[in-house]
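Priority: medium. Attachment 1 of 2:
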């Protein structure tokens, strides 16, 4: 049984979605797991990076809350290991002044982040938001396929292919691509993307910038000279459908 099958089986049994919390500070870990449990989740705690990786392999969590500053393997190393074999949603926890770690986390595929100190209720809301988007029932998602040149996005299967080759897109990159194609030809502001893709009314614009850069690396033939996902300086981004006869449908 695959990791996705095990996660789907747990959800169908109503046992609560498992959230792996990798955090070495016992106080923070206790507060976070307590709030998650009271919100109906099944939290599992790992106190260091090596334990986090082992538990991720054993329990196939629905989402990972991952601290950056961990003993032994740090959060960035754990993130890279996880992304080598899984697209499980990951929310990073960083401290004030750790902008470099935050950006590296986004570059390596983190879906979101929170800066310490943070509100446990906000963390729970972000976990709910990411999981709601990730595990929405197929019947609730719009049917059909989006096409843009040699890109094909199957929203029901959550599969993206380029010239027939499947691309590996984490949750937020997938959702960002879908939103941009659905709004092709229109300039989309960064704050709109934060609101519509990340469900935040405010946030660090670097989150959007990093995800756009990662997405370009996968969908553009030449990321340094994009023809699909273009920057409109001082405003935001515009997704251009190639060819006058192309359309998203």
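Attachment 2 of 2:
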């Amino acid at each position: 049984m695959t990791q996705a099958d095990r996660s789907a089986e747990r959800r169908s049994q109503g046992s609560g979605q498992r959230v792996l919390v990798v955090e070495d500070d016992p106080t923070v870990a206790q507060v976070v797991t307590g709030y998650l449990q009271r919100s109906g989740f099944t939290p599992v705690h790992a106190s260091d990076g090596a334990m986090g990786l082992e538990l991720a392999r054993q329990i196939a969590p629905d989402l990972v809350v991952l601290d950056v500053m961990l003993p032994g393997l740090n959060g960035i190393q754990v993130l890279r290991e996880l992304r080598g074999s899984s697209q499980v949603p990951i929310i990073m926890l960083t401290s004030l002044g750790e902008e470099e770690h935050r950006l590296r986390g986004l570059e390596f595929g983190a879906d979101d982040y929170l800066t310490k100190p943070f509100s446990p209720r906000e963390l729970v809301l972000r976990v709910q938001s990411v999981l709601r988007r990730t595990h929405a029932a197929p019947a609730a998602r719009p049917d059909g396929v989006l096409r843009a040149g040699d890109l094909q996005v199957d929203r029901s299967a959550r599969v993206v292919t380029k010239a027939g080759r499947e691309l590996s897109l984490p949750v937020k990159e997938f959702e960002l691509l879908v939103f941009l194609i659905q709004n092709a030809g229109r300039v989309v502001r960064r704050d709109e993307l934060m609101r519509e893709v990340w469900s935040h009314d405010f946030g660090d614009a670097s989150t959007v910038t990093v995800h756009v850069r990662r997405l370009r690396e996968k969908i553009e033939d030449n990321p340094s000279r994009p023809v699909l996902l273009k920057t409109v300086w001082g405003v935001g981004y515009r997704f251009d459908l190639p060819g006058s006869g192309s359309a998203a449908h």
